[in-house]
Structure formats: structure tokens, C-alpha cells
Amino acid sequence: MSIRMLPGMASAEAGPTYARVKGEGVDTTHGAILYLEDISVSFDGFKAINKLSLDISVGELRCIIGPNGAGKTTMMDVITGKTRPTSGTAWFGQTMNLATMTEAQIAHAGIGRKFQRPTVFEQHTVFDNLELAMKMDKRVAPTLFARLTSEQAGKIEAVLRLIRLNGHEARPAGLLSHGQKQWLEIGMLLMQEPQLILLDEPVAGMSDAETARTAELLNELRGKHSIMVVEHDMGFVTEIARQGIVTVLHEGSVLAQGRMDEVQADERVIEVYLGR
Ligand SMILES: Nc1ncnc2c1ncn2[C@@H]1O[C@H](COP(=O)(O)OP(=O)(O)OP(=O)(O)O)[C@@H](O)[C@H]1O
After folding, report:
1. Would you say the CB of residue 1 lies under 6 angstroms from ligand 1?
2. Counting atoms of ligand 1 from 1, which one is nearest the CA of 74?
3. What is the ipTM of this complex?
4. Does residue 17 lie within any of the structural domains?
5. How many distinct structural domains can be found in the chain?
6. Which domain holds residue 253?
7. If you measure from the C-alpha of residue 154 to the centroid of ligand 1, how many angstroms do you get, rounded to a whole number?
8. Are the C-beta atoms of 182 and 115 separated by less than 8 Å?
9. Is 107 exposed, middle or buried (0-12, 13-18, 19+ CB in 10 A)?
């Protein structure tokens, strides 16, 4: 991460920002869950994001790639309300203007983000982590110590299978491998049923086998959730992009967009990656 901190800024890794509840009232009648229009972000006059426009369709798995410093993290910070755009607009569905919402309101509306570094509750078991994530929903907080309904238990079971941690549910999360912790955190996001999931470098630090399993996991989520994945690992991106759109960011703008084979063959993309 090439993030320079300015006084008063919160750390990008400050902690989990889970979407709290399934988004209600997200108007996706025109088919898009997210619209970024002409977004710019300046830090002391330096344009980290420069007139960026991008939209994500409902159920799409969009991969975002780009060299270091391209503005990928800053873009996610704008979507989650951590950084305010200097100009431009960001819409969640047709009607929610993200620029007027706080980080907590955006999370509550249904945008869930997973940071690069896993932030699971290490002392708690895998099962408890998933249960706690589900019960962070403020509306059910009074039932924090109540028994799970069979529907809730079934949901946890389904997520455990999906994240390949069935059989590990009684283990303290602190004893999991790095990859397993990342899957658990994805599971915790899923428990909250976000409308849009943002994953920041999900396979960073994973073994090849863990990376392959993460690709399988994301392929299983395809079509069921709207997901934006920022990743440097091109093999992984190729696995999950399939025939979908890959967006290449460079100097804060969209440099190229298309299928993975198309963007990989694009001279401008080759140039920024190889620095020719
Ligand atoms: N808080 C900040 N203050 C000043 N400059 C910043 C700040 N955050 C990011 N930048 C700069 O903005 C540019 C974009 O950074 P950003 O972290 O969004 O890029 P990135 O594409 O996520 O890079 P990487 O792949 O290395 O994580 C970089 O030049 C970075 O140094």
C-alpha cells in the first residue's frame, strides 16, 4: 500500500467496516448498483483520482487492476465514505448519494468492505465470529445472547461450507492460517448480506493452494452478489474475471476496460505495467 497519511486521517486498516444489514431500499431499477461519475480526489493538490467514471451492475464481479499508486484504494475509500471526493458524484443504486453519507451510514445501507489485513476476533471460535457478525445488525442486537433460530444456524452452516471452514467451526480464529482468516472475514461479510462487497487484495500473502481456493469461492459467489475486487495477482484475476469486465486504473482514471484477454493485449496497459 502506498498510502501517505495526512494529519487527522484515519488509518486505512483501522478495523472492520462491515455492512450492518441487508440494504433496504437500494433502487437498482436501471441495473446498476454503483455509479461513480467524474470523481476526483486531491491530496494537497495531487490528484490521486482524476475524473474517474465507473459503474457496476447488480450481480457483477468486477476486477480492478492497475499499477501501484493508480488510485485503487482511494477509489474504495470514496465508495465507503472514508475519503470525500473533491468533485464528482458517487451513487449507490439510483438514489443514495454516497457523498452525503457517513461511513457508518454507507455500511448500514449495504456496502461491505474487506481490508487486506484480516481483522477477525482471534480469541473467538470460527462459529462465534460468524454469529457475532450476523448479530452486529443493530435491529437484532437485543438478541445477542439469545439462542440462534434454526434459520440463523442454517445460514451459518451454509457460509461455513462456502468458505471451506466446516469442520473448523470450534477452532479459535487466532489458530487459523492466514488464508483461512481471510475466508472467515469474507464469511463475516456475507453474514451481513451486503448489497455490494469490496475486496481489497484478497489473496495477498496467500499460498498458491489458498489462492486457487479463493478463486473457487469467488466463482461460487458470482451472480449472487455484486462484488468489486482489487487485486495485483494476475493469475487470480484471470481465474475470477472469466468473460466479465476488468477495469484498469492508471493515474486515477480508467485507462482501459474489457475482458481480461482484451486488456492484457492493450498496448497502453502493457506500457503502464512494463513502464515502457
Ligand atoms: N492520504 C493521502 N495523502 C496523500 N497522498 C495520498 C494519500 N492516499 C493516497 N495517496 C496517493 O494517491 C495515489 C493513489 O494511491 P492509492 O493507494 O489509492 O493507489 P493504489 O492503486 O491503491 O496503489 P497500491 O496498488 O500500491 O495499493 C498514490 O500516489 C498515493 O501516494
Report:
1. yes
2. 18
3. 0.95
4. no
5. 1
6. 32-274
7. 41
8. no
9. buried
CA 126 – CA 140 distance, rounded (Å): 20
Identify the CATH number of the domain in which residue 236 sits.
3.40.50.300
Ligand 1, atom 16, residue with closest C-alpha: 71
CA of 62 relative to ligand 1 center, distance in Å? 20
Per-residue pLDDT reduced to its tens digit, 183-236: 999 999 999 889 999 999 999 999 999 999 999 999 999 888 999 999 999 999
74 C-alpha to center of ligand 1: Å? 6
User: Residue 1: inside a domain, yes or no?
Assistant: no
181 belongs to a structural domain: yes
Reported as a pLDDT band with limits 50, 70 and 90, residue 111 is: very high
Alpha carbons 28 and 42: distance in angstroms, whole number: 30
Our answer on whether the CB atom of 8 is closer than 6 Å to any ligand 1 atom is no
Residue type, 10: A
64 within ligand 1 shell (Cβ under 6 A): no
Q: Is residue 96 part of a domain?
A: yes
Residue 7 CA to residue 13 CA, distance in Å, equals 16
